[in-house]
Amino acid sequence: MLDDAFVLRTTGADAPEASLPTQPCVMVVFGASGDLTKRLLVPALYNLACDGLLSEHFALLGTAMDPLTTESFRERMTADIKKFHTRQEFDPRVWDDLVNRFHYVPGAFDDKALFQTLRAEVKRLDAVVGAADNVLFYLATAPRFFGLLCDNLNEAGFKDGSGWRRVIVEKPFGTDLESALKLNREVLAHWHENQIYRVDHYLGKETVQNLLAFRFSNGMFEPLWNKNYIDNIQFNVSEAVDVQGRGGYYDSSGVLRDMMQNHMFQMLAYLCMEVPGSFEPDAIRNEKAKLLQAIRRYDAQEVGRYVVRGQYGPQLDADGKIAKPGYRGEKDVNPRSKTETYAAARLHIDNWRWEGVPVYLRSGKALWKRGTEIIVEFKKAPEVIFRGTSVTGLSPNRLLFHIQPYQGIEVQFQAKIPGPRMQLQPVNMRFAYGDAFKASRYTGYEVMIYSCSHGDATLFSRGDLVEAAWRAAQPLLDSWAVTPAEFPNYARGSWGPKVAADLIAKDGRRWHEVVTGEVLKTVPLFKDGDALFLEAVIMALRSRQVASGDLIIKKGDVGRELYLLARGEVEVLDDVGNVLKILRDGDIFGEIGLLMSTPRTADVRARTSCDLFVLDKADFSRILRDNPQFAKAVQQVAKDRYDVNVNHQALIAPR
Ligand code: BG6
Q1: How far is 277 from 284, CA to CA, in rounded Å?
Q2: DSSP structure class, residue 381
């Protein structure tokens, strides 16, 4: 029989009883009446309490301008936790115990008297709960208050005492290099670097932390992790949401500041850094810093060559009316804003390991899907040995880290199709977090609070890291400030601006769009497909973007591709250029040439910018043969659309 420890490990159950609770402390939250506190901090504290990971010797002292009392603060938090807790069931006993340890003092951050009151209150609470004189300051405020808060805490004598003092600072840490340097000077004027914990909530994500575990606990990957075997790396952070009413903040930020310089660079550092000597916080952070310092700082010309930006436009309904506003029509956004809501870049990491390996980053708002993925594409195997077989080309091996919302890791490779002949099909092996571990019910902030209370800074950014990230980002900001932007340049709900596809196409590559079975099932042709069929289609799809007016199919050409229109409109034209029909999202086209092996029978042109999936003839034929129901559906499309009868037997006969 398996012993308990083994069962626990293999089912992935976390064993909270095996972990120590947080260290005793009074946590002072500046900005306690704000969004972050109710959405993330308090739910995280509640999760820790539910899992027995919050010390009994804990009290929270909230402060902000809002004129609340301890009672009304507790009431407000109690109403909010019902909305924002992340567990399946709410446990009122745990909550009551927790909320009774919450206290509140109102005040303005520039009022010195507030800090005297806080000092006295911390002392009192420390005596009540036995917090060993440890104080954690959580600055959940706008960055412009960081310096002032640090000064006032210092003046109020908070540094004195026998316990530890730690300061958690929320992002954004600066808005450019200069402000980040200033902020570091201000914060470090009274505290040591090892007392400052700069939050980047991506480091709280299990799938991001797992990048390190994956790289350094599995011996088979590290030997391949370099320019000799890796062709390129792609980081993709797509958000389906728009600015969600945060126009005021976002318009002075943009995606480079909001996502790339911090969250994406953190993931980049984990994925590409050198092997640290240990898992000690500074051993890891030293390597991260070195990696960020190795990102090439572009001159203005290089920015033009390697970086593109975008801004979303409105969504139009069928009558051409605005259904949803574009970015410039959002609340609190300048109607002539030049702020980018999308960016894509090719970075160069100028070090021994990565010299010459393109690292592509892209992120944007109001895109077709929410999905964060990292794709490591390996160099292709030599194709030459397949000469004389029916194998026409090899796909590269890929390692995919699915960060969110789907969480998993996937390896893509090719396998022989069962049968007497040598034929290959791209296939994959996938590890899904949900299959191996209990689903994570954490917000990501639990581990931050927990680590900080134990003095473990691994998951927090360091002053030099933040500065290195700004040094790499600053040339982009400088260049964009003085160059015109042709905005808006992508439609809401699309894959992003065409310039991003062109950026990577210049290098002879394309973005790897991660599609799921759920997405594919929204296409009528695939809606009844079983898992095996959908997987075969997903593995074979390539992405392509075209601009409005581009000719996609030319009459008379020999067809090699089937197109699936993910978004946009195309028109099928007759010989004299009259529009025969218009195809829209979810439609396929190009099937006749493939089904009948005849030249293309009509021109197809993009009426709008379009996002397309492309299926090559070899894959199309194979999928048709293996999936008779799909063959029937495609036949039906041909019949309905062009009144063409395709012989079913001929279609699925083995070749
Ligand atoms: C925040 C940004 O830091 O991260 C937001 O300010 C963004 O604009 C968010 O939406 C994304 O975080 P997540 O965890 O949803 O990927």
Answers
A1: 8
A2: P
Cα separation, 460 vs 458, whole angstroms:
6
- Are the CB atoms for 166 and 137 separated by under 8 Å? yes
Q: Quote the tokens at residue 10.
A: 């293999």
Task: Give residue 83's identity as a one-letter amino acid code.
Answer: K
To test the pocket of ligand 1, the residue of 238, 239, 246, 255 to mutate (highest count of ligand atoms within 8 Å of its CB) is 239
CA dihedral 621, 623, 627, 633 (to 10 degrees): -70
Considering 103, 201, 263, 402, which one is annotated as catalytic?
263
CB-neighbour burial class of residue 298 (10 A; exposed 0-12, middle 13-18, buried 19+): buried
The neighbouring-strand residues paired with 429 are 411
Interval between CA 401 and ligand 1 midpoint (Å): 18
* 410 Cβ inside 6 Å of ligand 1: no
> Distance between CA atoms of 482 and 455, rounded to whole angstroms?
44
CB atoms within 10 A of CB 568: 21
Q: Which residue's alpha carbon is nearest to atom 2 within ligand 1?
A: 258
CA separation for the pair 496, 344 (Å, rounded)? 9
- In angstroms, the CA 64 to CA 139 distance is 11
Q: How many residues does the chain have?
A: 655
Give pLDDT tens digits for 330-363: 999 999 999 999 999 999 999 999 999 999 999 9
Q: Which residue has the tokens 């500074």?
A: 282
Measured CA distances, 181 to 67, 151, 190 (Å): 34, 17, 15
d(CA 160, CA 135): 11
Is the sign of the CA dihedral 573, 574, 578, 579 positive or negative?
negative
pTM for this entry? 0.91
pLDDT tens digits, 52-87:
999 999 999 999 999 999 999 999 999 999 999 999
Residue numbers of the chain with a pLDDT score lower than 50:
1-17, 654-655
* DSSP per-residue string spanning 72-119: HHHHHHHHHHHHH--SSS--HHHHHHHHTTEEEEE--TT-HHHHHHHH
